[in-house]
Amino acid sequence: MKFGRKIHLLSHQKTVHAGHKDYACDKCNKKFGQKSNLLYHQMKIHEGRKDYTCDICKKKFVSKSDLMIHQRTIEGHKRYACDMCDKKFGHKSHLFTHQRTVHEGRKDYACGKCEKKFGVQRNLIVHQRTVHEGRKDYACGKCEKNFGVQRNLIVHQRTVHECRKDYACDKCERNCGGDGARPSNTASLRKSERERERERDKERGGRKITRNTEKRIEALHTEPLRVQ
Question: In CATH, which superfamily holds the domain spanning 109-161?
């Protein structure tokens, strides 16, 4: 490798080849060769800061470089393709993480308080903070609810306070506020379908339908099979 400045060369030799990691995080056991990497780690993992916002989709990021990578990917610049599946990534590190966790099934980050393991360190930190420490650092500004994960706060605000229902069922006109709402919709529809069929069964003089027929009836939004 070549560098434009001598200080960058010395830093590279010290951290990569000599293995020096002089900057330790005071909140976990991780060490870093450069102070900038330590600060990035603390902002991203422990403080949850995201000071850079995409003006296209409003997604937030820890650093300007992360924002630039994101903007390249949403513009269609995904240069790093996985050779094991069809997924592509805008950053090489994202490709490596994908291959390590999805295709190799590696979970290198183990929780010291339970038996759970994680493929990404960020997920381990969130697990420890929310499950073992019971922290709920994300407070809703419109009610008194608190959440351990920022994503859950966003879903709460969108569905409860903004009354948004962005997920439309392609079988009927019913809309749901989030991914978690759709299964309950499906379950209630299946239940009502079974109840209606039982009523029709009674009207036919109590003739019992077979289990295979009932399974077909339980399929969401299909016409009930009528027994002649």
Answer: Classic Zinc Finger (3.30.160.60)
